[in-house]
Amino acid sequence: MNLMKCNFYKIFILFSLVFLVMGNNSVALAEEANSYQKISPENIYLEGDKAKLNYDFDKANNRLEIKVDSIGLEEGYYTSNLYSKGKYDWSNFGMISFNVQNNSQEELKFNFSVVKTDGTFLTVNEDKSVLIKKENNQDFEKLAPAYGTINIPSGFKGVIYVPFTSLNSQAGDNNQHLFSNISSWGISITTEENKEKDIHLSRFVLIPKDDSLIKYGDLDFKIEGDDRVQIPVQGEAISIYKASLNEDNVIYSLAEDYEGVSIDKDGRLTLNTSVNVEKIKIEAKYEYLMVKKEIQLYKSWTLGVKEIDGTSKSIPGDAEVKNLMGGIYPLIMSQRFIDFIRGICIVLVLIFSGLYIFWSRKKES
Fold first, then answer.
1. What is the CATH number of the domain that holds 206?
2. Do 168 and 289 belong together in one domain?
3. Which is deepest, 34, 74, 207, 260, by most CB within 10 Å?
4. Domain closes at, from 299, 323, 353
5. HSE value, Cβ hemisphere, 13 Å, CA-based, for 298
């Protein structure tokens, strides 16, 4: 009896461990941060144009509070740079990560950059991407720059991961082997006129090349398909989207619910006539990695175009067809009328078949 209890206890422990490993696999990537190499900004210096940039660095907590003020400036965009200057050897690492808290009323437009000892300036170009991970969320989102900046929404709180393979010069060079010769690293913040930015950065760490996160950062994962889709006047509009990643287990979905819009798990987007938005976002997910694509929706150009006689060039809707046909519309669309037409068609087929058979026999005789 004791032996059975002992075996049952061992089996229970084994299954519990398996369950815990499988259940916590989604957060294992984030928990590995305990083994990463922490780095701290030093010899901080500022560059920029007219926007005011102030910072407060809490060295004990490795926390950097940044405020940018463009109140009173002329219309335009202003970029401020904050760099840590020193001598750095990152040759054994493949990624840098840091926590971001965007307390601003608007999205944060920023980029990460590295300057080598030979003066080469590396930053995240628009054909590359970073990973972002919201607090208390297991998924990583792959995010590419737009017009030179990575856009983080207002209220965002989470972690940003910058793969070193995403850092390129203007000429498109990466030269990963030269990451042992770094003279400075930092971020640039771009803001419009009459704005105030409040950003908190913390927990700067370097992630080794052999870490499991590196594969997500290096994946060429994006959604390919139409950037613009026309809203149908009648029926449905269909557009097909596919991920650049050649994997069977990529799942597609909408970023949020939209009236008249649906997408199946294979990337088949369907719009019907009830669509009332001008743009939507779709998502593709592979394991714990997600990418998004924004799609512009537009109405048919014929909706506002008239014929010479004043009638519309667009396909008429159901209500318009009813008005044009008057009282006869309910009659011809009734099931009884449709059955009557079917009966006539069947009778005509039988008559012509009989005539054909009669004519064939007469010809043979």
1. 2.60.120.430
2. no
3. 207
4. 299
5. 9
Quick: pLDDT tens for 222-239: 999 999 999 998 889 999
Asked if 145 contacts 47 with a C-beta cutoff of 8 angstroms, the reply is: no
Question: Would strands 140-143 and 130-134 be described as parallel, antiparallel, or unpaired?
Answer: antiparallel
Q: Coil, helix or strand for 79?
A: strand
Distance CA(93)–CA(267), nearest Å, equals 36
Structural domain contains residue 94: yes
- When pLDDT is cut at 50, 70 and 90, the band that residue 169 belongs to is confident
The two structure tokens encoding residue 316: 């008429």
Q: How are the residues of the chain apportioned to helix, strand and coil, as percentages rounded to the nearest 5?
A: 25, 40, 35
Tell me the sheet residues that pair with 92: none
Q: Once rounded to an integer, what is the mean pLDDT over residues 244-256?
A: 88
Model pLDDT for residues 78-119, shown as the tens digit of each residue: 999 999 999 999 999 999 999 999 999 999 999 999 999 988
DSSP label at 72?
T
Specify the pLDDT at position 112: 96
Element spanning 354, H or E: helix 335-364
Last residue of a domain, one of 218, 242, 262: 218
Residues 168, 242, single domain; the answer is: no
Pairing mode of beta strands 196-208, 93-102: antiparallel
- Please tell me whether residues 149 and 186 are part of one structural domain: yes
pLDDT value at 261 more than 90: yes
Q: Find the domain containing 106 and state its range.
A: 37-218
pLDDT score for 218:
84
- Please state the pTM of the whole predicted model: 0.74
3-class DSSP state of 39: coil
Q: Which amino acid is at 183?
A: S
DSSP 8-state code for residue 28: H
| 237 shares its domain with 163 | no
